[in-house]
């Protein structure tokens, strides 16, 4: 089955700096890669996703890049703000049973003033 | 307001008791999912259902059971056979089960077994 690794597990940046979170996956046939943000005590919320037919996608301060050859994808947050502080999860949609997402172990991002 | 709800937010049970967690959605989604989240770990899939009256085991189904009698409801029962039931449980739904449809998550239920 699919295996997703996520790094780093914790990340602290100063307000205004950029943050980068990286994930690798094992199933070369995976074709959908969402990123979720989870605030304390709440359910995860989708912030951006990318499909295997594109290499990069942007939405304001958030961008995701995908390298299918290397089987890794990354989340980039620019001009970080305190409200960006949360746990971020990457995921990959494996093959076989299309509805199964495999999640990374999460990155706790702390944006300090 | 359309959305996905879970109740209760906090649940306490004695060891050896079965407990059922509620999940309801009014998004008219066909697919629904149950995940378990433990500290420092990602979400792990327990069960999922792509359509009413059908469901499949996920990666960690042992000690859990589900039903899908109605499109909008997907309750999860944590049985006494689950060896370590204390966790944060998340329910999600999506339009369909395939093609990378966005999964919408509920607020979660934190279950503590004493």
Describe this structure in words.
The complex is a heterodimer of chains A (113) and B (114). Helix content of chain A is 0%, strand content 56%. Chain A has no helices and eleven strands. The model of chain A has no long low-confidence stretch (mean pLDDT 93). Helix content of chain B is 0%, strand content 49%. Chain B contains no helices and eleven strands. In chain B, strands 2, 4, 5, 6, 9, 10 and 11 form a seven-stranded mixed β-sheet that branches. In chain B, strands 1-3-8-7 form a four-stranded antiparallel β-sheet, with no helix packed on it. Chain B starts with a strand and ends with a strand. At the A-B interface, β4, β5, β9 and β10 of A face β5, β9 and β10 of B.
Q: How many strands, which pairing sense, and closed or not: the largest β-sheet of chain B?
A: 7 strands, mixed
| Oligomerization | heterodimer
SS summary, helix count of chain A: 0
Indicate the mean pLDDT of chain A: 93
As a percent range, the share of strand residues of chain B is: over 45%
Low-confidence stretches of chain A: none
Annotation, overall tally of beta strands of chain B:
11
Overall SS class of chain B: mainly beta
- N/C terminus separation of chain B: 36 Å
What is the helix fraction of residues of chain B, given as a range? under 10%
How many helices of chain B? The count is 0
Q: What is the end-to-end distance of chain A? A: 41 Å
Structural class of chain A: mainly beta
Main sheet attributes: strand count, strand direction, barrel closure of chain A: 6 strands, mixed
- Low-confidence segments of chain B: none
The radius of gyration computed from the alpha-carbon positions of chain A, rounded to a whole number of angstroms, is 14 Å
């Amino acid at each position: 089955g699919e295996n997703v690794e996520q790094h780093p597990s914790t990340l602290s940046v100063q307000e205004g700096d950029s943050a980068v979170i990286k994930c690798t996956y094992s199933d070369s046939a995976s074709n959908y890669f969402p990123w979720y943000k989870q605030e304390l005590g709440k359910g995860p919320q989708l912030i951006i996703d990318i499909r295997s037919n594109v290499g990069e996608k942007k939405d304001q301060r958030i961008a995701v890049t995908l390298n299918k050859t290397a089987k890794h994808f990354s989340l980039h947050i620019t001009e970080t703000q305190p409200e960006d502080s949360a746990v971020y999860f990457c995921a990959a949609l494996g093959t076989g049973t299309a509805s199964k997402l495999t999640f990374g172990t999460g990155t706790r991002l702390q944006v300090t003033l | 307001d359309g959305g996905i709800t879970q109740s209760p937010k906090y649940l306490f049970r004695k060891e050896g008791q079965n407990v059922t967690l509620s999940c309801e959605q009014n998004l008219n989604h066909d697919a629904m999912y149950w995940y378990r989240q433990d500290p420092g770990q990602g979400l792990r899939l327990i069960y999922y259902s792509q359509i009413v009256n059908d469901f499949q085991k996920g990666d960690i189904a042992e000690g859990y059971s589900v039903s899908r009698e109605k499109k909008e409801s997907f309750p999860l029962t944590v049985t006494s056979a689950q060896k370590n039931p204390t966790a944060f449980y998340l329910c999600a739904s999506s339009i369909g089960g395939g093609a990378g449809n966005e999964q919408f998550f509920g607020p979660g239920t934190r279950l503590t077994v004493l």
